[in-house]
From TrEMBL:
It is found in: Cell membrane; Membrane. One of its GO terms (cellular component) is plasma membrane. Belongs to the 4-toluene sulfonate uptake permease (TSUP) (TC 2.A.102) family. It comes from Microbispora rosea. This is Probable membrane transporter protein. It comes from the Bacteria.
Amino acid sequence: MTGLGDVALLAAAGMLAGLVGTAGGITSLISYPALLAAGLPALAANVANIVALVACWPGSALASQPELRGKAPWLRRWVPLAALGGAAGSALLLSTPPGVFARVVPFLVAAGSLALLAQPRLALRHERRGSPDAVLPLGLTALSVYNGYFGAGSGVMILALLLVTAEPRLPAANALKNMLLGAGALVSAAGFAVFGPVDWAAVAPLAVGLFAGSTLGPLVTRRLPPGCCAGWSP
């Protein structure tokens, strides 16, 4: 972070990431490179990104009230699992040397990008073969751990998982996805705040942008054509 230019960059990137991420996914594929561009090292950028992502939770919740109505029992069942996965991912990140993360992050970004391309086909395969009862808990656990460790692409992967196993309507599945990601981010952020170095000067403008964008993302999803994700729904 060198000045007002970096602050403006992070705020703008945060708003775009919050809008796109809460409308479907790929938040970190926008916000994480912005943190690197602002001069943060790879590990510090990842920690700051995960902490700032907490700001998407209240914004998307406020904008998704129609979709979340009546979903409290479902959320009470699955939010704790997402939170535990986020805690495990952040613990893994904190327990490994910084050099390890710097070496694996290019592969994580590539994996997240490939997952975006592969998800519709994988979801269609699940649709044809059926979705065993274990798909949701196992998939959510694995993706929540990944989200707590790095998370690029995890939003769209969780969205596809929910469309296949839990909720066929895109706006409702997207709202549930945002709540699950928010729970994991909150637990991870708490761990980083206590045990890890957090660049709060970078977190603040990014979080402001993320919150602003996250109030718009669900509105965009609500207006998408019903068939736009037909390959994902059961």
